[in-house]
Amino acid sequence: MVFPAGHACCRTRPRGFTIVELLVTVAILAILVGLLLPAISQARTQAKLSRSTTNLRNLGVAHAAYAAMHNDRQLTFVVDAIASYGTSACNAYTHYANQVGGHPNLVLGWGPPLDQPTEPYVLWRYALDGSVHSHECWAGNPITLSGSFTRLFGQFRFGHQTKSFSPFLNGRYYDPVYFAPKDAFLYDIVKEGFESPAEFPMIEADDGTEGSVLFTSSYCLSPAAMYNPDAFAYDPDTDATYTEPWSMPAGLRCPSASQTLYPSLKTHMLEHAWLQNTNGPPCNPTFTGLGALAGCEPYYFNHAWQSEPVTLFYDGHVEPVGVRACMQADGRHREQTGYGLWSRDTPLGENGYLIDAGYDQAATSFHILTVDGIRGRDVVSR
Length: 382
Fold this sequence. Notes:
This protein has 382 residues and is α+β, with helices and mostly antiparallel strands.
């Protein structure tokens, strides 16, 4: 039988999704999202790790360029004989100024006065020329090993951002090469300075210090390697692994890079905060008060067993270094020789680099207090 056009038997009714089909589709999408999100997160984490590795590799190239221009010297901030002018940083620079003339300052760069971006630039610096006595006590040392400075500040935290070194990169104090992407809290604060035309754009602190906080690099130098190697040398007669540098006429003479005995085992720079394999809170409750990053000073690289800071070695290679592995190496060395790979004989004692502020039972001060300084080693194998 032939039906006329438009008859009901020739029309099809539009068909939608059934509830079962919709649920199946949603379930498939949920599974895909569940599979993709961890992969995306892992890719982002790996990208940040790669960025930090690249930053340190570029810093290593800059250190090599500095050494080539300065007869193999490491990055140096003080005159070789400064320790012969006093018994501490708090008086040596003043005596030097009186006897010789103003010591070179730690110059941060040219930039506008605070809160006055349209005013003529001024030269920001930390004075070691005797003009600002308070600067000398902490900025005149590679690291402050005594006194009331709760976070043991010094040149090792920010010296590579100053004009002594920054021209070997791009001449700016705030630049992405100095900051690790995983150092998110600090990165968010300083990123406004990345696009500034000033060498040193003063970034106002938001922790009540009214701009007095100096935001330092995510990476730090090895302060032990910045002293005369004799300061951290092992003395077989006394079993001591530390001699007060200010008691030695050349105690603060920064050694040349070629004095490294184990360039593939001695750390040069590393991520200062605990950034890799983190599972603790972002803020260290031990660190409070003025000077902390808006009350959120992080745990440091040596504050957790699973921490693996990305590290630049003196031979130029970059790799993560595990705190657990460094502790094990230190323990083996103590059993074999009677002393460890890092010094317990500084004024900091067994607590070393703020070990008591750690997240867990991690107990090491590798990189910071390396026995024998630049001639020592922080790991025993690769």
